[in-house]
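#lab-general

N.A. 3:47 PM
ok so I finally got the sequence cleaned up, no stray characters, all 169 residues accounted for. can someone with queue access submit it? mine expired

B.Y. 3:52 PM
send it over

N.A. 3:53 PM
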Amino acid sequence: MKKFVSGVIVGVLLFAGASVFADSASLIGKKVQGLYTIEKSGKKVADAIIIDGSAYAPVRAVAEATGAGLSVEGKKIIMSDNDVPQSVQISALQNKIATLEYNVNSAKDIINGYESMINMVLKSPGYDAEKDAEKLNGLEAKIAEQQQIIDKSNVEIAALQAQVTALEK
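B.Y. 4:20 PM
back already:
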């Protein structure tokens, strides 16, 4: 009977010690105490959670925002000062520029379509200035919206081209 009781006591101590260790090594089941937003230059990068007074943020999002390189080797996450080659950065910027230029050209095509519609309305045999005024105003408003897209895209293109120029130096 003594061996049985001592066996139970030893078993309880072993299992209790293992569960205490497992609890201290994991955040699973812990209560999230808050949520913070991580921003860089006024733009949201990611959300960080607060557990037991410590902030936990996604490393990849923070690394990308700071321009640091990130690699994973086994169970190590390694951040470097700048892992992204300059040519890759330039290529990414040029891809963004190409996308914006495509958007500008698409908006110009849309504007041309609306202008053609306006001309069709104005030249139609049944054109009535009062009756068709609302239709024409709607088309002109759509043209103005597309022009805003073009203007905004041109500003972004200029900024990206400045970045490319700076990287090429």
